[in-house]
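Cont'd.
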Amino acid sequence: MRERMEQALRLSKADYTEIRIEQREASKVIFRGRDLETADVVIDVGGIVRSLCRDGGWGIATFNSLDDLPERVEQAYRCAKAVHGEPIELAEVPPSQERILVPLVKDFRGISLEAKKRLIESYNEILLSYGDAIQDTTARYTDRFSRVFYANSEGTFIEEERPEVSIALSAVAREGDNVQRGFEGVALVQGFEGVEGQEELAHQAAQRALDLLRAETVVGGRYPVILDQRLAGVFIHEAFGHLSEADFVYANPQAQEMMVLGRRFGGDILTVVDDGSIPGLRGTHKYDDEGTPTGRTELIKNGVLVGRLHSRETAAKMGERPTGNARATSYRYPPIVRMTNTFIEAGETPFEDMLRGIDLGVYACGMFGGQTMLENFSFSAAYAYMIRHGQIAEMVKDVVLSGNLFVTLQNIDAIGDDFRWERLPGGCGKGQGGLPVSTGAPHVRIQDVIIGGR
Amino acid sequence: MDILSKLGGRAEQAEVFFVENEVTKVGFEANVLKSAEVEETRGVALRVMVEGRLGFAASSDMRAEERLIANALDSARYGDALPLHFPRPQPGVPVTTFDEQITGLSIERLVEMGQEMIDLVRAADPDAHVNVNLERGQRRAEVRNTAGAQAVVVQSPLEVMLSVERVRGDDVLILYDFFSTTLWDEDYLQVARQVARKLELARELTTIRSGTMPVLFSPMGSTVLGLPLMLGLDGKNVYRRISPMVGKVGQKLFDAKLTVVDDPTLDGRPGSAPYDDEGVPRRRNVLIENGVVGGFLYDLKTAAQAGVESTGSASRSLFSPPSPSPSNLIFLGGEAGVADILADIQEGLLVDTPLGLGQGNVISGAFANTLGLAYKIEGGEIVGRVKDVSIAGNIYEVLGDIAAVSRESEWVYGGLKLPYILLPALNVVSKL
């Protein structure tokens, strides 16, 4: 493969060209209630050529057939020639040659669909064992093994194995018109062993669905809120992470002014980091999809904006250092600036102390998701509890929190000492669909958060 | 492409789904042309029925036919036994989905169109940073099965996604809109005009109190109400008994102003096609009529499970088995003009762009959304944009009492046609 890619690159007439080829095999087994929805294996092979003509722009060709790479290189070049935009430079990155293999304890490619089915069926049985109120379940096992070949015209060649295994368990409980869902899951850069022995997740999902049947909808209003680690991770991804992606600011002077390095966004207790080099996490790769080494990038240090995430193009344009954050969801997409593993660094406040200061508040846990329009964002809890007189009280549901970039981060007044990485399946949907990312955080307390509700 | 005969006698029934797409795209970023792209997609999915059990496999590697067949046969060992029959040859519904004027659009022409859109939006607001992605393509999907059906769908989608970022001091405004068609439309600039109009309406910032008030949903805002309804009408959620509408066909659950149809027979709409993705002829399905539940959407498998007929609503991507999905989901317009509806609101909220759509317990009908773009209505007029506002409710309660549905409606995200919907009283939570 390397020879074919490098041969095709040598024919390119563009100022810069890269080829990325992906071979993927993935299996999934899904139960819905008592029915097996599917147990299948799919094969996905494809590639992308991206060319740059410095005075024009990018030309891109994506394809499934690998038969004629030189023709694909020519197609991408023709596209680039047709673009007459503004000059584009790429920040310098030294060429790398590397083959990155990921050894798996129990390689799922050697495990039969039968064994995968047995495992996920056993978790599904646990969900169903919670009685007639459990109206429906979804138990999903997925694995995928990708081999990604990357080569560019500056001499970089990287071959990387990207394995992932996950389970997602969801129980729907129903009583009349009251329909509630509990879910848990785990996604890991591991072999089959990573999803064995996860019975506890199934118990949690089913019990939560039943508990939510009894929960009242939260009364809308403004509350002091404690986010658990999982929701705090989503919060920082949505509330701040996307703002720190340089593709938002690099071509917009007003946005640069707003996001000027040195500006204060939170109190001294708040430090936020993105780090694509932490071993074993889903957002981790040694190099990004432009061949730039990944690493630790501090975004907020003691409340002050100190860095942002870059591709080679955004780094060159802003005169900053490329951070290894150009990532692509698959061979169908060119890399864009994305987060990797984003986290709030641990603080010093024990959870009990956070509770103590709250007379009436909300303890928001787990996550349904989040979305941002940069200044304003929303994120939703899977379940929550009222806090009354410093104690955790009754469960409440339908808790959706709203935030404002300039207000909400400033309102963080306590950061826990109980940092945790999350390992939920799913990913970040910016632009090109689900990309594996990780979030991490301790418990976080925020004053004066808007919660929608009746 | 002779997989069916290669299978020989190894399966009682089989179906091949073959896709072949060619798409050309251009992208503008922050008002500047940035990229041009060609995309070629080829792939095949195979379903087999062995001893009454259904198996599935797919591949985008056209040289891996033998592995595809082996994977499908292996998959069938685990499938549930189902009384499912792939359809015989039938005539498709007549509908136009292909236009050479679209497939013939050059990169240069797409660039011109994008530039016109940017110029139009920037004329409304010179501070706007406009991103435009235009793509035109030729998509071909073919279903062939051992019952003899051969259903080919060829479409020529033209899609425009336009988004605007405007930063003023610490005020960030993000706007977006979509345009899509499969028949050439001279008025492709409508999407840019729409965005320009929203920019103008959002010029003034104002505040709104918290409390219960009339809330008017624009077509894009109406997705808040449409999404839970769409999930509730999915035959799979009905068969699984998690749709709140299960067992309620013939009952009046909603205000009589609400009528919802799924219509794949409209010329030029991206969701339209003569056949669905299992080779079953598509058809118009009335789902809610004057507030009364009429029926649900089914594909072959869900229909077999539920003991009903497929409604021709199977939809699939290459790498997943089919599932029921709406084609063009339409909330029929009402009688009132939107100007008259507005004029009658003394104090209220106009919801345009929700955040967090689809998050939360959507199937239950619950919605709780922060609003990315919303306006205050005062004395019958839109007086300015409001920020840090959120709304919440449950569609199975609030759609029981609709104050008005507008005559005017718009296509949203390509496949949804929605009017303005006025709810008489909804709880609004505001930071200020």
